Amino acid sequence: MDKQTVTIYDVAREADVSMATVSRVVNGNPNVKPATRKKVLDVIERLDYRPNAVARGLASKKTTTVGVIIPDVTNVYFSALARGIDDIAMMYKYNIILTNSDENGRKEVQVLNTLMAKQVDGIVFMGNDISEELRKEFERAKTPIVLAGCVDEKGDMPSVNIDYAAAVEEAVKNLIDRGNQRVAFISGSLDHPINRDYRLKGYKQALKKAGIRYDDKLVFETDYTYKAGQLLQPALQSVNATAAIVGDDELAAGVMNGVTDAGLSVPDDFEIITSNDTKLTEMVRPKMSSITQPLYDIGAVAMRLLTKLMNNEQVDEKTILLPYGLMKRDSTN
Amino acid sequence: MDKQTVTIYDVAREADVSMATVSRVVNGNPNVKPATRKKVLDVIERLDYRPNAVARGLASKKTTTVGVIIPDVTNVYFSALARGIDDIAMMYKYNIILTNSDENGRKEVQVLNTLMAKQVDGIVFMGNDISEELRKEFERAKTPIVLAGCVDEKGDMPSVNIDYAAAVEEAVKNLIDRGNQRVAFISGSLDHPINRDYRLKGYKQALKKAGIRYDDKLVFETDYTYKAGQLLQPALQSVNATAAIVGDDELAAGVMNGVTDAGLSVPDDFEIITSNDTKLTEMVRPKMSSITQPLYDIGAVAMRLLTKLMNNEQVDEKTILLPYGLMKRDSTN
DNA sequence: CATCAATATGAAAACGTTTTCAATTTGATT
DNA sequence: AATCAAATTGAAAACGTTTTCATATTGATG
Asked: Where in chain A do CATH 3.40.50.2300 domains reside?
């Protein structure tokens, strides 16, 4: 009934060697005579011995597990990053402990502590904001942490992103160039640095270069949800917006459907550019033009960076910006 | 530089008690005199002691971690289940190690073994098929395993699903009742029991009850991808299908867009019912009618069931069927 | 064949907890 | 005051590895 586990000690006894030797062959240490290695391997096979990773973790102080804090796996943007993270993690023999934070500061702190208690070798953090409390926890953590799709206000943590300001600026310029004088800026909370310090900045910059006066009535701060976007239509109409740059694809889909459901035509009456280029952009009609981001790669590169940090390898640049683009689809002319 | 960790031993020394007592207060064991408890708690606070979960896992043979095998986090259907799993896991103080399997049998087996090596207390498995090899691994695992959104051919593993056959039958009947004589059946591989033994069976049953002859030209076996669905349009037209029951929402979105992009009208020329009721159904236009499944709940209930199994609690029913429904939206008349 | 360096091995000490069992203290009851 | 049960505590043995250090063993070299 009880799990009759076979331990390294059993193998050692059967193979008539010491535990140390078994450990060596299991870990591929070359200092083992081929004959001994074979003998041990045979016993391992015969006994169906599987090393206990927990014991290993205790002894070696390495768990080959990394923590991943994600706002919500259900969100296409984040799950794309998560996939990149997991693939690279697996490639380097790590597993990931995945936890949803709902962007809730308290939950984030708590989850971080659990992960540290579990002795993860590193952490990838995704989220739109880093609360002061969380930052403090990050600082006292001895474990390497990298941010993915998440900007660090103070700019000192390893991170992987695109240049959101430049991307938004380019997108907005694109809309203005086609004659849109009143371009709405729709994003999540402006408390989030990514929105306040990057996207909005790019937006303003584009207006400025085009000689258009900034009008804060055109700035919409909302939830990152489909529903929230859909409900925005009347407000957009009331400020005479003819186009919008939107910070999230689900949100953008909501905006677009709100607009079309109200009888307007996208892109003829209203143009939309969204920000994350998830597969959702291709599934809605019209297909949404978008800033393109290498989502999978952001996760993958973040994880790769983390492996280097965990290995104490020299890393040249801790703040990585990946290239972005602009993909024209059918929500713009 | 090296992590200067404070251990239970440090606390014991400072508080002038034994490790055993510290362990007791940390674990909320009631057999500790209040005064002692306070003394220990104070030292813990002062030293900022954090129990090492790995050591704890080794000593107690419990890791409070469960493994989750998922085909692809990026898939809305599965990520919805995953979210339910994680929430309940967290509620019961478990963490989840999440690994993508890509439905690749070899990878599944390998991942399962890694999870077992890491001594997870339980496993939730999602996937469309259980290969023979995998089944064998499942059987020799001493760890409880539950299937979520995944039918077990042999019917002996704990699982949480809906009654796919009945749901599909009802959906197809719905289409037939509105006059559709040629209803296409579009799903993923028919090698998967869920398609072959349940959905297709429900489909045939509905035809039979309506007195319509089964025509295998109307059965389309394809990938669960948007693209695959989109490319199906010519084939659908060539067999004069006027409606379809589709096994996956992304796939269905592809089918629908393929049809509309070809100039046909949904639902007037072609009706569609999809199967998973993910949020995607609301985002496309027309919105897709769907079999409704309590996705989040399937994950949640599966995890809850797992907690019972892990605790050796009595469970009355190991094969759980959750209620389904039919949601009429705009892809049907 | 003596010597020395390299190569293989093993003994035992970590790693940081939980848990068992016995010992001690406490408090209530005569 | 004596007794006994219950409540608290501590010592030490797990848990299953890795790793250090010393010891054998081997092979090459002069």
From this structure: 65-162+295-323, 164-293
Residues 6+ apart with CB under 8 A from B308: B314, B315
Q: Where are the beta strands (DSSP E) in chain B?
A: 65-70, 95-100, 122-125, 145-148, 159-162, 183-187, 219-221, 243-246, 271-274, 289-292, 319-322, 325-327
Cross-chain residue pair A257–B285, CB shorter than 8 Å: yes
Q: Give the residue nearest to nucleotide D25 (CA to C1').
A: A33
In this prediction, residue A1 carries a pLDDT of 32
pLDDT of A2 above 70 = no
Whether CB of A36 is under 7 Å from strand C: the answer is: yes
CB contact under 8 A, A280 and B285: no
pLDDT (0 to 100) of residue A152: 86
- Structure confidence by residue, pLDDT tens digits, A89-99: 999 999 999 99
Fold of the domain spanning A65-162+295-323:
Rossmann fold (3.40.50)
Which residue's entry shows tokens 């880093």? A130
Q: How far is the CA of A16 from the C1' of D27 (A)?
A: 25
Write the pLDDT tens digit of every residue in B151-201. Answer: 988 768 999 999 999 999 999 999 999 999 999 999 999 999 999 999 999
Task: Please give the CATH number for the structural domain made up of A8-51.
Answer: 1.10.260.40
User: Is the Cβ pair A283, B100 closer than 8 Å?
Assistant: no
- The pLDDT tens digits for A31-63 are 899 999 999 999 999 999 999 999 999 999 999
Would the CA dihedral through A109, A111, A113, A119 be positive or negative? negative
Q: What percent of chain B has pLDDT over 70?
A: 98
CATH architecture for the domain at A164-293: 3-Layer(aba) Sandwich (3.40)
Q: Which of A86, A130, A138 is nearest to A112 (CA)?
A: A138
Q: Which residue of B has its CA nearest to A72?
A: B83
